[in-house]
């Protein structure tokens, strides 16, 4: 690894490091970014992702089918100690495993609490679980009955 200020043999890295900034443990790219949020740098008239560029320069080639994963989860970080090479499939399963489950909502959009008594749960046709707020549901039923056009709901199976 070539720390900021130092240059790998044969390369002028001053420009590269001038586009980086130490942020905590990470060395963050502050130059241009691509659509996905990765730093990009133009080298010999070709665009490179900054983290892949520095990885190849300091660690070695990235074979076809391999991706560079950020252990620090900071896409714009180019510190090679934070970069790990893995296959594309390893990479996607890694991210699936680490996806944080969203905490379930405690209240419906109208602000009624999802207590046991106020929550109706069902299993949708595709096997996923759904639920609704009984207070809102009942209010909706009442409105529908009053307006006289109550349509049966067939979009889910009740278990
Ligand atoms: Zn980092
Ligand atoms: Zn990753
Ligand atoms: Zn509600």
Note down, in words, how this protein is organized:
There is one protein chain. This protein has 159 residues and is an alpha+beta fold. The chain folds into two domains: 13-91, no CATH class; 98-143, no CATH class. Helix content is 25%, strand content 25%. It has four helices and nine strands; from the N terminus they run αββββαββαββαβ. It has helices at 14-18, 50-58, 88-98, 134-147; strands at residues 20-23, 26-29, 40-43, 46-49, 66-70, 83-87, 119-124, 129-133, 156-157. The strands form four sheets. It has a three-stranded antiparallel β-sheet. Strands 1-2 form a two-stranded antiparallel ribbon. A hairpin with a 2-residue loop joins β3 (40-43) and β4 (46-49). The radius of gyration is 26 Å and the shape is elongated. The mean pLDDT is 85.
Features:
159 residues, alpha+beta, three-stranded antiparallel sheet, two-stranded antiparallel sheet, binds zinc ion
Outline the fold blueprint.
Layout: H1 14-18, E1 20-23, E2 26-29, E3 40-43, E4 46-49, H2 50-58, E5 66-70, E6 83-87, H3 88-98, E7 119-124, E8 129-133, H4 134-147, E9 156-157
